[in-house]
Amino acid sequence: MTSTTTTNKLFLASLAWTTSAFVSRGSQPASACPPTAKSMPMRLYSTYAAAGAPAVDMSKYDLLLDEAVEDWTAVASAGTAMQEAGVYLRSRSKENFVDTLKFTIRRDGGLGLLLNEIAGGREDGVGITVVQEVLEGSNAEGSGIVPGDSIVALSVSRMTERGPSSVEEDRLDVATECLGYDATIEALMSLPAVKSPDDELTLTVKRIRRQPRINVKLQYPPYSEEEDETIELFAGENLRREWNKAKRQ
Hints:
The protein is mostly beta strands. The protein has 2 domains: 2-211, PDZ domain (Pdz3 Domain, Roll); 214-248, no CATH class. It is 10% helix and 39% strand. The strands form 4 sheets. The protein has a 5-stranded mixed β-sheet with strand order 1-9-8-10-5. The protein is elongated. The relative contact order is 0.21. It comes from Thalassiosira oceanica. Residues 1-21 form the signal peptide. This is PDZ domain-containing protein. Keywords: Signal.
């Protein structure tokens, strides 16, 4: 038996570049057009630079819903070698970072997520929509999704028999980052109908978290005749740079 995979990508909003409601970074050639719903590739990025799996429970750094609502912003960015042109979620505060997480939820009976638009009202569908509440007893309860998360992508996979000895996996990926409420609901409604109680949906969300801080004790050799000192760093910061900065203060 053979198995092949086909991927379809669906994008539901064109992204405008000139707006007073969102931040614009970088430059765009005068002859270039804003990326359209059909041309935009899926964007799944985490802005946190830490490498490897976290060694602590990162949920302790999650913001409360009201804090997350105040901190979310959308940034229109020109394309670079590292990132496609588009509109991206960012944190307003330099003391926070945006993490990217994936959760798989059963679709039968609904997801059980109450969504709220915190920025939007634009004709092109661009905005910011967050999870307002995870309903008790729903499929999403206990999944790991929390209020303040913003859904940035949806993915549905289904195995289909193409012949007596061939099975093909059909996957539909829908990008929803920086969409208003109506466009987000349209994306959810565009997914194939539920055919089995076991049908699942993978949601990729972005979540604002406080950057972990650590205290580092610096011990100098005896000949330096300097007292030991303790400096506070964000996890992952360059120790030498921050030490030099502390010495100049």
